[in-house]
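Dear Dr. L.,

I hope this message finds you well. Following up on our conversation about the binding site, I have prepared a predicted three-dimensional model of the protein together with S-adenosylmethionine. For your records, I am including the exact sequence and ligand specification that went into the calculation, followed by the structure tokens. Please feel free to forward this to your student if that is useful.
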Amino acid sequence: MGKTMATSSRDWNQIYAIYGVDQWQTIVFLLLHALFFTALSIFYLSYFESICSFFELLFSGGSARFAAGFTGCVTAISAFCLFFAAANIFYSSLPLHYEMALRMVNAVSDWSTVKHALDLGCGRGILLNAVATQLKKEGSSGRVVGLDRSKRTTLATLRTAKMEGVGEYVTCREGDVRRLPFGDNYFDVVVSGVFVHTVGKEHGARTAEAAAERIRVVGELVRVLKPGGTGVVWDLLHVPEYVRRLQELKMEDIRVSEGVTAFMVSSHIVSFTKPRHHFVGSGEVRLDWRC
Ligand SMILES: C[S@@+](CC[C@H](N)C(=O)[O-])C[C@H]1O[C@@H](n2cnc3c(N)ncnc32)[C@H](O)[C@@H]1O
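The resulting structure of the complex is given below.
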């Protein structure tokens, strides 16, 4: 079976121009704090003796020097951690997101037979457009639908698809992922990137209500997938919960990727196949997913 791999050989200026930087407010917030702590660390280094004299007003002799040194070290470590967090979020927001979208596309063994694909919570469309690009590369008559609850987002996503030159392969639909507006067994491929963990957050991420909603989304994903179809989900949190649900639903060939640090947490890609026949397998989970 021939397989065209999705690869990245893109001009990053063009990619940034199309998608922009997500969560830039968080990045600016972290950078400002990192700069503040850097300035404080430099101040500590430059005026260490004066700072020790100040600490001597509060502590006696040796403990004043220790307290000054300790707070200086904490300040420098905080600056480093804040720079690291800002850099990781900046990297995760686009370069890593783009790379993970390609890995998700490559988790599907054969795109040539794909007629209908779905991206749940398509957002800016990085993953959606990666799927559309793969369909275009295959010369496929297949199409991908991006589902998002926000009309503004779906309109913006259609614009990114046009800019990527895959507009004709993409349609967007407004809807709620907890009640997918599609019939059973319709899509050959269903994907979702850094999204499912956000469902039900309004109840509090650790509540039973939120967990029930996430489980419902996994159920909906399986419902709309054709027998023999492939599901691929990349998420930052709750991956073991999805795997348990997929095992309960008797999905086959469940694979979990190694952890990839994204947005400061260890994220995983889960891929699986919906059984062609109602064959109940062992529900084995393999941890050897090729990335
Ligand atoms: C973090 S973005 C996803 C990014 C996207 N998957 C990508 O690869 O670029 C999450 C998106 O999910 C949408 N969303 C949130 N809750 C939703 C729901 N219940 N149903 C459908 N879409 C939802 C939001 O509007 C947002 O655009």
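In brief: The radius of gyration is 24 Å.

With kind regards,
A. P.
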